[in-house]
From TrEMBL:
UniProt subcellular location: Membrane
InterPro entries assigned to the protein according to its UniProt record, in alphabetical order: BRICHOS_dom, ITM2
The organism of origin for this protein: Oedothorax gibbosus
Membrane topology: Single-pass type II membrane protein
Lineage, top ranks: Eukaryota, Metazoa, Ecdysozoa, Arthropoda, Chelicerata
Domain of life: Eukaryota
GO MF term set: amyloid-beta binding
Transmembrane annotation, as ranges: 52-76
Homology family: Belongs to the ITM2 family.
The keyword Transmembrane is annotated on this UniProt entry: yes
Family annotation (PROSITE patterns): BRICHOS
Keywords assigned: Cell membrane, Disulfide bond, Glycoprotein, Membrane, Signal-anchor, Transmembrane, Transmembrane helix
The name this protein goes by in its record: Integral membrane protein 2
Length: 303
């Protein structure tokens, strides 16, 4: 059997003389010192950034941007509350205040008494400090209608010399309501504008107090009141805002007491005391016949 073989030696070599893919031209850089060419190697493999890394970077940037926007909006709203002047177009303000309180002194304001005690500390003043009652503070949460100036809500938590209550000053109806949270009842009296500032004036005063360049008059003023029975039936006589906050409780009118002949202990007196600061002086309201006001549900709502 004859096997025919074809020798492709030379012909194959001729076909392989020209490369299938042209090789990259490697640039050469001559060394300035030795004059010899320096070979620069170019790597064909380029490392690609994974898609997961790209997504993580994008998500991080988006999170930082969102946090910055939210933080900026919060700071803007926070500092906008304390802008004072005609250019401040605020509609509503809500915040906290800390009020100095001296129930046994009706002379100099407590804030001035503290300053004198700190700056002029001599033997005489140290002796007088032993006789001076300790200055207390009570907190207030204020809710002020700045745009329309129709109402103020001042909530005072329970403290040593007063019970928890909310004062509602209705400037449309010219009434002041006291919401007794502990016994679920309300008291209403005529709005005293000598001690209760208007909403915008009260807001500006609070802003100045927080800025540190205004000292309010926190002298204590006592008001002795008495309850008028029976409870109010027609809620239109107490104003819209008071009627809204006292819708579920009985409402009693208050008047100035003509003959306070009630003897009570100090503990019971502090329990019947409502205290607030609404711009001018710290006002104490003592209701001598508070037990005549029956707590419970509003008879109008119950019927």
């Amino acid at each position: 059997m004859t096997i025919a073989q074809q020798f492709l030696g030379k012909k194959g070599c001729k076909q392989q003389e020209e490369p299938l893919v042209p090789a990259e031209k490697v640039p050469t850089v001559k060394d300035a010192e030795e004059g010899r060419p320096v070979v620069v190697t170019m790597h064909a493999h380029v490392r690609r950034v994974s898609s997961l890394t790209t997504v993580c970077v994008f998500a991080t940037a988006l999170l930082v941007l969102t946090t910055g926007i939210i933080g900026g909006m919060y700071l803007y709203r926070h500092f906008a509350h304390y802008k004072v002047g005609k250019g401040a177009n605020l509609r509503h303000f809500r915040g906290w205040c800390s009020i100095p309180y001296l129930p046994d002194i009706q002379g100099e304001p407590p804030r001035q008494a503290i300053a004198l005690g700190l700056t002029h500390r001599t033997a005489a003043t140290e002796a007088s400090e032993m006789k001076t009652p300790k200055v207390n503070f009570f907190e207030e949460e204020v809710d002020i209608d700045i745009k329309f100036e129709q109402y103020e809500r001042i909530e005072v938590p329970s403290f040593e010399h007063g019970r928890r209550a909310q004062f509602v000053h209705d400037f449309v109806a010219n009434k002041t309501g006291i919401v007794d949270f502990e016994n679920k009842r309300c008291f209403v009296m005529v709005l005293n504008r000598n001690f209760v500032f208007s909403p915008r004036v009260l807001y500006e005063q609070i802003a100045k107090m927080r800025a540190g360049y205004y000292d309010a008059d926190t002298q204590t003023v006592r008001h002795t009141m008495q309850v008028i029975t029976p409870p109010v039936i027609d809620l239109r006589n107490v104003g819209t805002f008071i009627a809204r906050d006292c819708a579920q409780t009985p409402i009693y009118m208050l008047e100035k007491a003509t003959s306070p002949i009630y003897k009570r202990s100090l503990d019971s007196e502090s329990k019947n005391l409502f205290v607030e600061f609404a711009g001018n002086k710290v006002n104490e309201y003592k209701i001598i016949n508070i037990n005549d006001a029956t707590p419970g549900e509003n008879p109008v709502e119950a019927s």
